[in-house]
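debug: dumping io for the single-chain case to check the tokenizer round-trip. Nothing else runs in this session.
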Amino acid sequence: MGARRKLGRQFGWLWAAYAVSAFGTWLAFDAFPMIAIMVLHAGAAQVSLLAAAGLAVGAAVAVPLGPWMEFRRKRPVMITMDAVRFAALMTVPVLFLLGRLTFVQLVVVSVVVSAADIAFTAASGAYLKALVPREDLLVANARFESTSWTATMLGPQIGGAAIGLFGPVMAVAANAVSFLLSAAGIRAIGGTEPRPERAGPPPRLRAGGLLEGWRCILTHPALRPLFFNQVLVGGLIMATAPLLAVLMLGSLGFAPWQYAMAFTLPCAGGLIGSRLAARFGRHRVMLISGALRACWLPGLAFVRPGTAGLVLVMAVELGLICCMGVFTPLYATYRLDRTPADRVARTLSAWSVSSKATIAILTALWGLLAAVTGPRIAIATAGVLSLATPLLLPRHEHDAPRPAPSRNRRRATPDAESARPF
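debug: decoded output
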């Protein structure tokens, strides 16, 4: 069975590192807005600025990192990004204890962590492609997806209890420690990672180099439609999140625990979807799940007060997350398969930068739309637009590029002993 396939000790360490950082992130879910509100007494405009700045400015800061890391060993880059996130986050509890924590400090930390997230994701995707055989990429991505949804389901519950006992600043400290543990796990992978081959001098840290990533996406017949589909669907889903919070916690009168339950319990659908993806999927299943994923968002516009409304939101979220659980590992594998090995880091960086920037822009636009029309109409508008996004999915299964033969080409594993399944 594909879902039970053993992928080796090195992948096991990579998976463990991902798991601990994912749980740390979700333990500190909404900790920054809580600190801004509870500790720094920030208003709604400042809290919105904090959320938008982390995405938009962090994406801009990350632009030159993709070309810079393309021809460097990926494990040191991943460890460095984990160390950067640890150091940045730890400034929050330290300055809090010193009585010097400010709103500007929160914004700066949010930007640094967001940029490091993009760089880490790009480097880890390139490293995974070198570490895991092509036939096992789907299983590996499915395991990451199931771990992500498990963390999403359990992390906020445990984190909410911890915040209630110790405060949001300690949750940020716990998140920082999770990145330190992630760095230790990546270091424990061991083995010798060959330095990527390149022609010419080492690339400098500059924004223009990432154009090659966007060029790779926009000129590829399979990556181009998938890119626009993923960026738009993700942006529309995330743009409705604050509007639904305003609707449910405001005029509909749901309690905070009911709101949290409406979004954490359906995360079980992500576990179901990721297992289905590993068992059944490739191109046809990706198309079906991608199309079904776009059909759920309009249902959120019909939420009503009381138990019936709560059940509706949970049913919609369960269906949406289940489809996402199937689609995400399939699309991640499809994308890695069709990205040339010498452009993986730049392509994934360009993809992440575009995704985060789109989320920030659409969130701001839908906030303005909600101010004019009300949150329910704004959510419905996003839902109607999402129904058209399946048209952007790649209809044909374009062949993945074959790696160019090279006398120096080696696997990321040093020898047969280190590649032995665990």
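debug: round-trip ok. The radius of gyration is 21 Å.
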